[in-house]
Amino acid sequence: MTAVPPQPTLTDGEITLRPWREDDIDVAHQLADAEISHWFDFEGLPPREGLAEAVERWHQQYDDNRSTVNFVIEVDGEAGPAGNVEVRQTAPGVGELSWTTYEPYRGRRLAPRAVRMLITYAFGELGLDRVHAEIDAENRASIAVAIRAGLRREGRLRGSATLKGARRDMLIFGLQKDDPAPDTLPGWTAQMDTLLPKKRVIAHVVVRDTANRILLCTTGFKRDLELPGGVVEPNEDPAAGARREVVEELGMELPVGQVVAIDWLPPWHGWGDAIEILYDGGVHPPELLEQLQPDGREILKADWYDADQLKGLVSPLNERRLPRVLAEPNRLHQLRDGNPE
């Protein structure tokens, strides 16, 4: 078995990460406060004995196989610990990060720098391939640390932890060894892509006949009649998505022309908000129906409908907007939940 090297001391010239010493325990215990107790779910302030046992356990886990490596954060030129950072191996090549900053040192952005140093150590010295942190969805300070340290938001674990006896959602922030460094443009944009909102884009097609009736589909998954089209896939432009959906649903290609409406949809029945684009599908003879081949699963059939037939057959949203579109099919309608902006 390869001998475990002594736990190192790491520094960036201003912040030092070093092993715990016996004299750190009393200082760190005195700096524990209600913020630490809250997020670590202690009843009252954490006891000194608990911290002493933890330090002993961290030393032992490091000496055994470096399954847990916990460093004191020290600010150069200032005595005593400012906090601590930890990486705990949870699976081969995978480590979970955690950190604490003591109250006198908060607001100085020490934790993000310390976490970045720890990540470099984990990928280099420890040979890990991935690190991540699970953070309470309401712990804004720790979320900010994760973002400033370059971690990417990867998901939400609903009700996966408890705090004060109540179920809590946890956010997952992670980074892989081969990810572009967060201080490069590819790394920064990849991280921002995980943090910024992602709206659904829906592309539907307004197909009319020579009597200015609109083509609506009976679906196999809801009672409301619906326009042909659907959700645009990742890396697909909306017009291409509309064409693809029409072919998949109706078994034939139809023209997808200019945009006739752009609509913002607020949250509804469990859906998040979305942007919907309606494209002009052209004017066709009524006999077009004979050429359609509904897929029989998602789309059961399609038929023509007048504007005055829509009430009760389509969603309230389409009741508001489709008559407007049929009344003025050659203009761009800018809508908010089916109403003019």
Automatic annotation (TrEMBL):
The segment(s) forming the N-acetyltransferase domain are 15-178
Q: Which Gene3D superfamilies match?
A: 3.40.630.30, Nucleoside Triphosphate Pyrophosphohydrolase
Record EC number = 2.3.1.-
Q: Which InterPro entries match?
A: Acyl_CoA_acyltransferase, GNAT_dom, NUDIX_hydrolase-like_dom_sf, NUDIX_hydrolase_CS, NUDIX_hydrolase_dom, Ribosomal_N-acetyltransferase
Q: Which UniProt keywords apply?
A: Acyltransferase, Hydrolase, Transferase
SUPFAM superfamilies according to UniProt? Acyl-CoA N-acyltransferases (Nat) (SSF55729), Nudix (SSF55811)
Domain called Nudix hydrolase: residue spans: 197-327
Q: Name one GO molecular function term.
A: acyltransferase activity
**Protein known as:** GNAT family N-acetyltransferase
